[in-house]
Amino acid sequence: MTQRPDSDILIVGGGLAGLPLALACAQGGLTVTVVDVLDPATATDAKFDGRVSAIAFASCRMFDRLGVTKHLQGQMQPINDIMVSDGRVREGASPFFLHFDHKEIGDEPLGHLIENRHTRIALQKAVADEPRIRLIAPESVAHIDYGSQVTATLGNGDKVTARLCFAADGRGSRTRQAAGIKTVGWDYGQTGIVCTVEHELPHEGVAQEYFLPGGPFAILPMVGNRSSLVWTEKTADAKAILALDDDAFAEEMRVRFGDYLGECAPTGPRWSYPLTLQLARDYVRPRL
Ligand SMILES: Cc1cc2nc3c(=O)[nH]c(=O)nc-3n(C[C@H](O)[C@H](O)[C@H](O)COP(=O)(O)OP(=O)(O)OC[C@H]3O[C@@H](n4cnc5c(N)ncnc54)[C@H](O)[C@@H]3O)c2cc1C
Fold it and tell me: What is the strand order of the sheet 77-79 is part of?
């Protein structure tokens, strides 16, 4: 006879997708086990992930309901306006632009920009408050059998059983691959350079999406007189830009950023992310 599983749900991966899912399942009355290969302290370290994410209006409401927002006080930058324009390096923006103004749809902002690090910290705190969630980390999932129940063998040899498994182990998901689910997609041949910029003047919650020949140059407002840059270039050009010394990097940044926020300078580390499109061909398998 099959034993009762350890929990209703097993989630492989406790990242930005896995932890909100765990909270939603737990608050719906299900018991959840989350396994993540990363140490939670590493995942929230300032050096681990320099990105900010735009958390759209509906996702902000979800964070409220899941008890995450209360752990994000002072870390959420409202997005009041989004400006979309194009231009050329050193020539400035074209006079034509699109303007999305939150006032056209109501009193609330279009969303919030939050540093991924703070979102991870808030999610971990909300998970710690939830007795129905067991977080096993750092530990990997080595193998999963799908039979009358899900049986996952962890890297340390322990077994975890559940009724249903979710693969939230990122874009290179081994859980997806092991289940034989293929993907379709392509490489854009572009890389996103990410860094934080300090500037003299307040951004007033305006996000800029500025399309340059090498790719979009997004200036995303952060808390304080700071913005997060997602600077997209062809991969070879991005490599050359990333290899520049601090002064030359700042100069390349300024000829694109312009002076609309006064004096500005990059601060802290630079990160880079290859940009690809990837879609799973299928989203379900028995018990997955
Ligand atoms: C430059 C850039 C900007 C972006 N901006 C935005 C934005 O503004 N808004 C937005 O919504 N999205 C944005 N995204 C996308 C967003 O970052 C991703 O969609 C999101 O991080 C995916 O989360 P995830 O939980 O699926 O994966 P991840 O965050 O990669 O988490 C996967 C987790 O699984 C764990 N794991 C992996 N393998 C195993 C294993 N075998 N066993 C156990 N655990 C394992 C990992 O340790 C990790 O914690 C951006 C992406 C990039 C590159």
Answer: 52-56, 111-115, 77-79
Model confidence pLDDT, tens digit, residues 28-42: 999 999 999 999 999
Tell which atom from ligand 1 comes closest to the C-alpha of 169: 34
For the chain, what is the domain count? Answer: 2
Confidence of residue 2 (pLDDT cuts 50, 70, 90): low
Nearest residue (by CA) to ligand 1, atom 29, is: 15
Residue 201 has pLDDT above 70, yes or no: yes
Rounded to whole angstroms, the Cα distance separating 133 from 285 reads 24
Q: Give distance in angstroms: CA of 16 to centre of ligand 1.
A: 6
Ligand 1 atom closest to Cα of residue 38: 47
Tell which residue, 210, 203, 198, 195, has the closest CA to residue 263: 198
The three-state secondary structure class of 72 is coil
Q: Which domain holds residue 123?
A: 7-71+115-183
What tokens were used for 237? 């050009």
Mean pLDDT of 246-270: 96
Mutating to test ligand 1, I would choose from 42, 134, 169, 190 the residue with most ligand atoms within 8 A of its C-beta, which is 169
Q: Do residues 21 and 45 share a domain?
A: yes
